[in-house]
Amino acid sequence: MAAAGPVNPPQPVHAHAQRGPPPLRNFSPDFNHSDPERWVCIYPAYLNACKSRQEGRILAKNQCVENPTFMEIREALASNGWNHIVERKIYPRERSKEFEYFGRIRIQLKNDDGTPMRKDFPDRESVLKYLGQTIPQLKSRLNKPHGTPADTAPVPQSSGGGNKKGKKKK
Asked: Where is this region: Disordered (predicted)?
């Protein structure tokens, strides 16, 4: 018989080891407006000026931003003191599954009694308009280089000589 070594019991999963916000419960009309399940969802596609209405844009193009990210939306909301949660979700109409298209933001618009938390922002559309004005003024947007990678790529220079090999004459 082989001698068995000490067996390590499985380690418990601690709450602080969990990554991200706790999972949300299934929706119920009995939840209060302060419960995250009742908060309003905002996807970056709602504000994307590069998308059509059919692809999910909600506002007019002149009120939208070109290719916003969930991090920019989060930064704009946090600077104004909104209660918000970032979720690792993707917009259902989004064709690309790339990381830059991930992200859903939930924000609390109403108090428990149903009144708006802020009189200037009674609904989702007013918050989207605020984000459309705020995101272009973020430091991350102002410091971005305006040239595209194709514009900044070095142009290969020709050697000037026409050293082409052709067919040999017989």
From this structure: 1-29, 138-170
Q: Please state, in angstroms and rounded to a whole number, the distance separating the CA atoms of residues 24 and 21.
A: 8
The number of folded domains in the chain is 1
Q: Is this structure's pTM higher than 0.85?
A: no
pLDDT, tens digit only, all 170 positions of the chain: 555 555 555 555 444 444 555 667 776 677 777 777 778 899 999 999 999 999 999 999 999 999 999 999 999 999 988 889 998 888 888 888 887 778 999 998 888 888 888 889 999 999 999 999 999 998 888 876 654 444 444 444 555 555 666 666 66
DSSP 119: T
Q: Measuring CA to CA, which residue among 116, 96, 94, 7 is closest to residue 43? A: 94
Report if residue 165 sits inside a domain. Answer: no
Residue 167 lies in a domain: no
Domain contains 23: no
Residue 47 lies in a domain: yes
The Cα–Cα gap between 116 and 35 comes to 14
For residue 77, give its domain range: 33-140
